[in-house]
Specification:
The complex is a heterodimer of chains A (about 475) and B (about 100).
Chain A (H helix, E strand, L loop, with lengths): L3 H10 L4 H19 L2 E4 L1 H16 L11 E5 L26 H8 L3 E6 L33 H8 L5 E6 L5 H7 L2 E4 L19 E6 L2 H11 L17 H4 L8 E5 L9 H16 L3 E5 L4 H19 L18 H12 L2 H14 L4 H22 L5 E5 L14 H5 L6 H6 L3 E8 L5 E8 L4 H14 L11
Parallel strand pairs in A: 2-3, 2-4, 7-8, 7-9
Antiparallel strand pairs in A: 1-3, 4-6, 5-6, 5-10, 9-11, 10-11
Chain B lengths: L7 H7 L6 H18 L34 H5 L5 E2 L2 E2 L8
Antiparallel strand pairs in B: 1-2
Classes of the chains: A alpha/beta (about 475), B mainly alpha (about 100).
């Protein structure tokens, strides 16, 4: 499948047209998605109408941006005006947003073409997309395995060539981990880099929207379109957005790369350890200077996260009460009973678990011991990174300790949570993180290399990732779908 | 840190979740396991460490208090499970 940059070039040369491309993607979805199940909703008509509009602009020699006519998949946690947005939850099964998220306003203004909305773990809570209330998504590299999560539909759509790029959201690894499991590039931008307006909230101090693409340049082009200050999100930061695609190709001579020892742990997949070790050697060969660093609070980050994220979620999800939108249970004799039944019937098991955990952590008598303690640990996690970044420019480590596992393999919630042990600290510290393919296991499953950067320094991450990508063959491999 | 035996009835009431008995039992045992894992935080000395609520320093963002257009009531009501005229309809709140 062509990359985002290749599509743009083919449009401009007249080799192909946006309508032909969008039609071929829709055809491919029809053929392959019954197996992969990446999409929840397809927006066929509006996609074709948009493709036609791009075609007119191209004929006039006036494309709106490098994304004009590029077909994208959008995670179903991002509000799309007039298009059902479910968060893969029964409670929002029929919710049709009356407005577009800021990222959608920006993508539309850039001429991008949404093909549809993608499956996810309910309310972005999970690491396998098995927590969708509707159906699980399959990993295109092995249909018996999960695509990762929570943005599993978006990652699988890009990996299977069912979209040229995609948007996901990342609260504890939900872009990077599925990117690693599906062999794509995924970027979690710095907290505040991309507007969260219209992103259905999970944990507001951790959530960020970010791109998936088959290659680093595609991810850079998508990030360029969505990044920047938004008056509608008071947590979006008002600092200039650099030219990300221009940062590619600068090379990494002299780049200081830190290798955090806490990210190479006992029990991790030996294939992952080997591939990431080899990737670090490649970076050295390209002129990077590596050194070992220590982030001692890492061992506590996961525990702190599983207090902070559920606490914020329990508060954010209080809005689903069966009054203004969403599902309402029948037969409640008064308001309180209606609330309790609506939420019990509308939310799935993982969401209930986290609401309960978060409510408990915030409840009288436990607040300081749990939530307060976790916030202090968060300070230590952040401090570790700050100290490391006094000595190095980026950190390199595995994205996940494992590769894609089989559906149903991780039934114990805690075992599932441990999948995010290497991605969570980045969210707690608000840093940018990127995952890109760095090899395959013997059985042919993709492995992800994670690069972590200084706040608002996505450019360095992208340029390091690009240098690595150009020196290795992994991004050229595609899954063989039956 | 307090004993991680969670009062499931109380927390479910606070969270407005009418859980079944089976759900309560399952969630209680799962949360006990998760809270036992979380107890490792006790090992870490955080004496004198300030809490972080946001990773990026946040300040209040002020703007002029101006009247601006908002979404039409009809659109805002379109997703309501039950409505009457331009109101959201809910079960009774006050006892007669």
């Amino acid at each position: 499948m062509p990359t985002i940059a290749e599509l743009g070039a083919r449009y401009r040369s007249g080799e192909t047209t946006p309508t032909q491309v969008v039609e071929s993607y829709l055809q491919r979805i029809e053929t392959l998605d019954p197996q992969v199940r990446a999409y929840l909703t397809l927006t066929r008509e509006s996609a074709l109408a948009r493709a036609e509009a791009t075609e007119k602009r191209l004929k006039a020699g006036k494309p709106l941006s490098p994304l004009d006519g590029v077909p994208l998949a959008i995670k179903d946690v991002i509000c799309t005006k007039g298009v059902r947005t479910t968060c893969s939850s029964k409670i929002l099964e029929n919710f049709v947003p009356p407005y577009d998220a800021t990222v959608m306003v920006r993508l539309n203004a850039a001429g991008a073409v949404m093909l549809g909305k993608t499956n996810m773990d309910e309310f972005a809570m999970g690491s396998s997309t098995e927590n969708s209330a509707f159906f699980p998504t399959r990993n295109p590299w092995d249909l018996a395995r999960v695509p990762g999560g929570s943005s599993g539909g978006s990652a699988a759509a890009v990996a299977a060539g069912l979209a040229a790029g995609a948007l996901g959201s990342d609260t504890g690894g939900s872009i990077r981990q599925p990117a690693a499991f599906c062999g794509t590039v995924g970027v979690k931008p710095t907290y505040g880099r991309v507007s969260r307006y219209g992103l259905v909230a999970f944990a507001s101090s951790l959530d960020q929207i970010g791109p998936f693409a088959a290659d680093v340049r595609g991810a850079a082009l998508l990030l360029q379109a969505i990044a920047g200050h938004d008056p509608l999100d008071s947590t979006s930061t008002d600092i200039p957005v650099p030219d990300y695609p221009a940062a590619l190709g600068q090379g990494i001579q002299g780049l200081r790369v830190g290798i955090p020892s806490e990210y190479f742990i006992e029990g991790m997949d030996p294939g992952v350890e080997k591939a990431v070790g080899a990737a670090i050697e490649v970076l050295k060969g390209l002129g990077a200077k590596t050194e070992k660093v220590s982030l001692p609070a890492t061992n506590y980050a996961l525990a702190a996260y599983y207090l902070i994220a559920p606490a914020e979620a329990s508060s954010n999800l209080a809005r689903y009460d069966g009054v203004k939108y969403g599902y309402r249970a029948a037969g409640g004799k008064d308001l309180i009973q209606m609330y309790g039944r609506t939420r019990a019937e509308g939310f799935g098991p993982e969401v209930k678990r986290r609401i309960m955990l978060g409510t408990y952590a915030l409840s009288a008598g436990y607040y300081e011991a749990y939530y307060g303690k976790a916030q202090r640990v968060r300070t230590l996690v952040r401090r570790d990174f700050q100290q490391a970044f006094e000595r190095v420019d980026v950190l390199a480590c595995p994205t996940a300790p494992n590769v894609a596992f089989k559906l149903g393999e991780k039934e114990d919630p805690l075992q599932m949570y441990l999948c995010d042990v290497f991605t969570i600290p980045v969210n707690l510290a608000g840093l940018p993180g990127l995952s890109l393919p760095c090899g395959f296991t013997q059985s042919g499953l993709p492995i992800g290399l994670q690069l972590i950067g200084k706040p608002f320094d996505e450019s360095t991450l992208l340029s390091a990732a690009y240098a690595y990508e150009q020196a290795t063959p992994w991004h050229a491999r595609a899954p063989a779908l039956p | 840190m307090p004993d991680p035996k969670i009062d499931i009835e109380h927390v479910a009431r606070l969270a407005r979740l009418d859980l079944s008995e089976a759900e309560k039992e399952r969630i209680r045992s799962q949360l006990d396991a998760i809270l036992t894992y979380i107890d490792k935080l006790r090992q870490l000395d955080t004496e004198g460490v300030e809490p972080t609520s946001h990773a990026i320093p946040m300040v209040n963002v002020m703007r002029e208090d101006e009247v601006r257009p908002c979404l039409p009531a009809g659109e805002m009501l379109a997703n309501a499970p039950e409505r009457e005229r331009e109101f959201f309809r809910v079960p009774k709140i006050i006892e007669e």
